[in-house]
Amino acid sequence: MADDAAIRIPARYSRGPADAGTVYLVGAGPGAIELLTLRAARLLGEADAVVHDNLVGDQIMELVAPGADRFYVGKKAADHALPQAEINALLVRLARAGRRVVRLKGGDPYVFGRGGEEVEDLVRAGVPFEVVPGVTAASGIAAYAGIPLTHRDHAQAVVFATGYLKDGSVALDWPMLARPRQTVVIYMGITRLAEICARLIANGLPASTPAAVVRHGTRADQRVLTSTLSRLAEDARAEGIKPPALLIVGHVVSMQGRLNWFSP
Ligand code: SAH
Fold first, then answer.
1. Secondary structure (3-state) at 97
2. Domains observed in the chain
3. How high is the mean pLDDT of the chain?
4. Would you say 118 and 131 are in contact if contact means Cβ atoms under 8 Å apart?
5. Candidate of 60, 187, 196, 215 to mutate for ligand 1, largest count of ligand atoms within 8 Å of Cβ
6. Could you report the per-residue pLDDT of 174-199, keeping only the tens digit for each?
7. Which of 132, 167, 207, 260 has the smallest C-beta neighbourhood within 10 Å, fewest atoms?
8. Poorest-pLDDT segment among 107-116, 169-178, 232-241
């Protein structure tokens, strides 16, 4: 159950009430309800219509005003409940009808969330909009799994990449991803885990490089599996790890055993 006390937002944080006829593209964070921004919580309570994905948890949906219309538009890698063009058209239609529309997405709307595509259509249609950032899976999960994304001893850069491309391939810049002294975070990569790990090794990362997959990070059922690049895919299969899960590769993963604090 959502804790009401946690979501009463002092007026001094207000950026004003939500406007009719506006689309708010809102990041819901990685799952844990208290990782929502104050702005997101306020807008959910004020919305007339909420258009949401499957990555947004039920607890967060409890913040939506009881009278608001809810539109579930799904979104799993290959299997969209509603095609992207229809989602965009729905947002435009609701806004033109004078609704305060929250388009709620897991994580951050501008990190592998197609937020840019939706906003382009709003601009084309002349619909006013606002973008509310959220905690992206990489930073939420890094914190809750005990894996610092950067560390002066281990990684001076961090790269976010997607394991799922529009045409179903994993045509990534492998030499860039296999560079030393960086952390690589791959979203939507779990179904291609064996291929991704093999490519990283083929492009120069040692087979012994620490790597982790985290399923349902920040949630009560978070699962963290640490291994090495050469064994991770097999271990994940043996453990039955399924999407949504995040892949983190790099020496920072070796700190997980010591820095892990979240025991749901
Ligand atoms: N906009 C989102 C990402 C959407 S892509 C964000 O900023 O986080 C969907 C992918 O994000 C999933 O396939 C998975 O790789 C990752 N992801 C999102 N939430 C997650 C969670 N709680 N635990 C593990 N992975 C998650």
1. coil
2. 4-132 (3.40.1010.10), 137-259 (3.30.950.10)
3. 91
4. no
5. 187
6. 999 999 999 999 999 999 999 999 99
7. 167
8. 169-178
